[in-house]
Amino acid sequence: MRKEARLLRNKAVDSLVLSIEFFNRPVERARADSVLILMDHAFEMLLKASIVHRGGRIRERRAKQTIGFDACVRRGLSDGERRFLSEEQALTLQTINALRDAAHHYLLEISEQQLYLHTQAGVTLFADLLESVFDESLSDHLPDRVLPVTANPPQELDLLVASEVEQISALLEPGRRRRVEARSQARGLAIMEGSINGERLQPSNGELDKILDQIGSGRHWREIFPGIAALRLDLDGGGIPFSLRIVKGEDTTPIRAVSAMEEPNAAVVALKRVNELDFYSLGLQDLANKTGVGRNKLLTVIQELDLQSDPEHFKVIRIGGAVFKRYSPKALDLLKKELPELDIDEIWDRRRPRRKNR
Fold it and tell me: Residue 117 contacts by C-beta under 8 Å, 6 or more apart in sequence?
């Protein structure tokens, strides 16, 4: 393992241990905020370690800073050998990240069961990535006893949400004057719903009031939070020793990556449908025609710039038995920007396929 990847992985484990420690602490002061902030940091470090370990870059060309959380998730979703995330795993990551944003930048009240849900799902995902990317067990880094502990773990996602909506409804009963508390309790669910739908959402009081009005009118929670309703919990008692994953329910809209070019303010993944060939609208020959560089030389430039590792630029699309290697208009823009600065002949000479001596 490269030294940089090892140091990043170790830093990730340190933050994970602290996140679990805060979850299990008996004092409530800053507990939930600390859990989410440290869990989010643990994942950013682990994602960067994974990218480096798979031979990818965590710095853009000529950039002074490393890439951010969303860019790490996008690279983890890239096609080919460097891919190490599924869309469902990315959904868990961006939900934790969105809750962390609320805790770090504003206010967040989150129920004990919902905090446990995201913490345990985070620990499970951390263990899954350690195993799939580094071929390591979480128990190699911390004992099994260092896990989130709760007296009342959720068994079904729909029961958890129904219970929280019922509590919010009780706060809205006439004469109670507890709308501020109800608004605060609805914030976590609203953030989770927005994250599932690919929205970078820190809900305003007006948006929360619309949710409260729907709850107060007796509308079913599945209609208010359709994104959450499309998910379920996958529980496994044989894991580390217990694992919890938030996964897509059967017969629901597929989870897909959302392009920042297609929707600039969107999160990384969402429960949405899309015609991918409309977005990845260019083939290699199209790029060659538009840049004036031959196909073979252009392909070595694409390899030099590592475009095929970024889902913003490239995707392998399979339709039946046919395989299409497609590029986005953003890839063309980047090539036009970088080509004048590159020595194409030198790149070709260094990267071109060599014939074996016979």
Answer: 154, 157, 160, 233, 244, 246
